[in-house]
Amino acid sequence: MIQKNDFVVYGCNGVCTVGDIGPLEIPGVPKERVYYTLIPYYTKDSQIFVPADSTKAVLRPVISRDEFLKLMDEIPSMDVLWVDEEKQRDFIYKETLRKSSCFGLLQIMKTVERRRQERTAKGKKMTATDEKYAHLAEKNLFEEGAIALGVAPAQVKEQVRARLLHAMETQPVEIS
């Protein structure tokens, strides 16, 4: 059960704190409907109002320290989200990001790193789709990992990137 002051992850918005739970004092909004007032943790000058009874909103507690560390250990065996068709890959990335699981965010990162290696080996640049979703996945994962581990996002970035690159070194790229 989500409570006031909890850390939660709200879809693509990343880590938020629950500022309030209750009806909104906004004209035109039904007084009987309960909302979570979310405050993005790394962008404190905004608020997000999410109906507590929403079935569409992906709202979950922040991953625990132990779960995050276990997830880091899974990076070498984690599958990539390989899709050759650009539009289909965009859809897969978007859906994975929307679900906002740390596992999925790492899959995006691992997929993009694999594609970066392959494209670089062929003398090609990264696609805008890969760059965009890698950035969003990294931002959300590093920020959530920072809360879970009690460190700065930059420290999480260093740890995750090191593990990800090590995993990629042990899994050579196949150039077709």
Q: Concise description?
A:
By secondary structure, the protein is α+β, with helices and mostly antiparallel strands. It is 47% helix and 14% strand.
Describe the structure in your own words:
The structure is a single chain. The chain is an alpha+beta fold and 176 residues long. 47% of the residues lie in helices and 14% in strands. It contains 5 helices and 5 strands. It has helices at residues 65-73, 86-99, 102-121, 128-149, 153-169; strands at residues 7-10, 15-22, 35-40, 48-51, 59-61. Strands 4-3-2-1-5 form a 5-stranded antiparallel sheet. A hairpin with a 4-residue loop joins strand 1 (7-10) and strand 2. Helix 2 runs parallel beside helix 4 (128-149) and helix 4 packs across helix 5 (153-169). The radius of gyration is 18 Å and the shape is elongated. The N and C termini lie far apart (49 Å). The model has no long low-confidence stretch (mean pLDDT 90).
Produce the secondary structure layout.
Blueprint: E1 7-10, E2 15-22, E3 35-40, E4 48-51, E5 59-61, H1 65-73, H2 86-99, H3 102-121, H4 128-149, H5 153-169
Antiparallel strand pairs: 1-2, 1-5, 2-3, 3-4
